[in-house]
Amino acid sequence: MIKINKIKINCIGPIKDLELEFNNHFNIICGQNGIGKTTILDCLAQSFAGSNTTLKKTSGFEKGLWDIDISIDGTKSSKSFLIDQFRPNETRRNYNGYYQNSNDIIVFKTHRNIEYIKLSSLGTDQIKNHHEFSGETIEGSKSNQLKNWFINRFLFSAQAGTLDENQLKNYELAKECFTILNPTIKFLKVLPNSFDILLSTPLGEIYFEYLSSGYKSSLALLLGLIQEIELRYTNPSKFIKDFEGVVLIDEIDLHLHPEWQAKIYEALKAILPKAQIITSTHSPHIIQVSNASEIIPLIIDNENEVKLNPIINKEYGCQGWTVEEILIDVMGMTETRTSTYLNAISNFNKAIDEEDFEKANTYFLILDAMLHPENSLKKILKIQLTGISTND
To answer: What is the model's pLDDT at position 390?
Structure first.
């Protein structure tokens, strides 16, 4: 069992001085673009790598450093990692991190698309060792073997005594993953003449590679987790719900429709009840449904340094916030409305102040057509307009 307790980062990427603590289950790093979410995930992941790192020191500083505190089977351990690389081709470091524990760390980068692969034959499972596991802390888990792995389990699940109990449970859960985002989509069959996976949908049968990019990104994540558990734990095998390691995911909401963003959050919590998950997101919908203890909001302070954002309520998080409030105060958007709207409302207000009914009415008609049909601002604008018309 491995859990990451804390990390302190100095002068790496955009981060000059930041210390974060993590809970034992779900952690969501959020904030504006370029604030260092991926840098944090890379520091965490590459603490378990071998002799290389992709991380670079902050420009203008002599060295970068991160310290990590973890627990291994309940025993606390700490290590420091020094970085003096800055140029793109500088990647070597002369020490190892928690290399021997890299099989307990599963990393997903943003390359999570599933391309169509024609299988002319069915292969055996990949044989992985610590070299592959540690390499994936830098490169991330790949989805190019998912199809082969799933069809292998499909075929052998029908043969009594070939898959053990944990493998059978993992396979059944893998089939359910096709339905998690949309209950109307279900695993149907594997074509014997092409080894292609077909799904049942309201529009008929389709190849699973023909799903939307968001759906495939989710399957690369959910099926990829199950596959990684099976490749890392072979003797004895492990049911994914018993995994007690760490999963690091860059952009959990990648390509997902807003309706599905909360579903992938709930799905990960369901299939990984004992694992520690640390992820980043740009989704206000995920922040909206998350528990307060799960949110790690970052902000750039007045000194132009990355710090924790103190605005999040420590009891309820953002569960009562609007999407717009989260976008502005958590994700760092300065404005969520268009310049066309802002210009129209500014000109309307100016005309109201000047009691220029004709000009105010012109901009009222623009705003009335622009706003949502049920927006209460329409009534307020009309009252304001009526007010200056009676003055005439």
So the answer is: 62
